[in-house]
Amino acid sequence: MKKLNRVAVVHALRLANMVTHLAPHQADEVFVIAILSFLSEVRVLRTDDAETIANATRLRREVRIYDTRDKYGLSARKIWGEKGSKILLKFECPAEWVDEAILVVKNELLSEIQDRSKNSIMNNQSDSAIKKVNFAFDKNGKDTSISTMIDLFNPNWDEKQDVDEAFLKAVKFAQEILSRKIKRTVAIFKAKTKISELIGLCEGRILVMPEFIGGNWIVNVLSDPNPKAAQFYFGVYPGLFGEWMAQAIPPARDRMRNKKKPFPKAWWGLSGQKLVKITGVETAIFCHPNGYIAGAKTREDAIRMANLAISEP
């Protein structure tokens, strides 16, 4: 038995809770196993033996079967639809956003994998199963899909690598991709919740954030249902290197290039002592050439720069 990251390849049906085809592996199959492995150990029997598959079919309550010939059978999208909510809650997704998060992962990752797997097919080394090959191309015509990355783990003709070890490495890669996608998705929805809480707490024209809450914080402000969200002209938050940023907020999501109240034009493109002199803000660092964002060394001075901009006629 070979095992890696909660997935084991076994060689007897009595040890298995999942049956799939022999090598080579393909992306949809690999992601099915990766998804299931987030909730429990997956013990995979890889076989094309008709009798074994028939016996597994009679044990469907205990053993899942991945069959590329069954268009109504297991797929990454289907398994994610069944198990996604439990997995997302394990990743601390806010309960009110679970249904939307399920759709994001499905539509932005798993649909691409399954749809591409329908583009072309090739015969397996065994005649009893059909494999799906997945193609995606960048602007230079190079094959770049995640499905193709998964396929790269299949041993080449001149390699002596064990096919089960290659399969487990492909599953581990899929686990990492899926984990990162889930974490990114959860972070986006946690940010929505956090921004909504801050909108309820903050008064005045400046939304002060105790931490940087992702690059979509402005979109979250503009889409928040709280009427208070419309009152904010600036957001203030800590930067990546200890500084504090003040950023102008657009009037609407379809007018992102505009700002309700940009910084004064006399500040645009200035930095260091030139900016300190014209603003009177001792720790002012810079103002962007387009006047939509500025920085200072302290939270108080970033807020002060925003207030100065608001007070401009």
Structure characterization notes:
This protein has 313 residues and is an alpha/beta fold. The protein folds into 2 domains: 2-187, no CATH class; 204-311, no CATH class. The chain is built from 9 helices and 12 strands. The strands form 3 sheets. A 5-stranded mixed beta sheet has the order 1-2-4-3-5, with helices on both faces. It has a 5-stranded mixed beta sheet with strand order 8-9-10-12-11. A two-stranded antiparallel ribbon has the order 6-7. The termini are far apart. The relative contact order is 0.10. Residues 118-139 have low confidence and may be disordered.
Describe how the helices and strands are arranged.
Elements: E1 2-4, E2 7-10, E3 18-20, H1 27-37, E4 42-46, H2 50-57, E5 64-65, H3 76-90, H4 98-116, E6 120-123, E7 130-133, H5 146-151, H6 163-201, E8 206-208, H7 217-223, E9 234-238, E10 244-248, H8 272-279, E11 284-287, E12 293-296, H9 299-311
Parallel strand pairs: 2-4, 3-4, 3-5, 8-9
Antiparallel strand pairs: 1-2, 6-7, 9-10, 10-12, 11-12
* SS class: alpha/beta
Distance between the termini: 74 Å
Q: What kind of assembly state do the chains in view correspond to?
A: single chain
The number of strands is: 12
Summary, kept brief:
This protein is an alpha/beta fold and 313 residues long. The protein folds into two domains: 2-187, no CATH class; 204-311, no CATH class.
Descriptive key words:
about 325 residues, 9 helices, about 15% strand, elongated
